[in-house]
Design goal:
By secondary structure, this protein is mainly α. It has one domain (2-113). The protein is 77% helix and 0% strand. It contains five helices and no strands. The longest helix has 27 residues, at 87-113. The N and C termini lie far apart (56 Å).
Length: 119
Amino acid sequence: MKTRLFILLKFLGLVIALNVVRYTVPIWLEQWLILPQLFSAMERSSAYFNTGFTTVDWMTSYFYNFMMWLTIAWFFVLLEPHLRGNIVVKSLKVYGMALIFFISLSAIYMNHYSHPKNF
């Protein structure tokens, strides 16, 4: 029983670490590559963007990211024994495919839900 608890805690630690890395590491890259264009688009088309974020909106965002990393880490744990290559190659196979999936999903949501109500 202690071994299972340790594995579960280790798994949750990995998921939390992935979430922390997601919010701390790319911030400099986002400020340089994404935010200037995003803010200029928000100024030009303010009706398209909801900038009135509430605490519930932030909690939903953090929960979504936690569940996303939980799912990807779970897939990795399940698939890792069946993949070939060293641990880096195995990680790239699982996390790379997940990256493509979530980028596609984000593009779909942005396309469908970014229109103003009177569109």
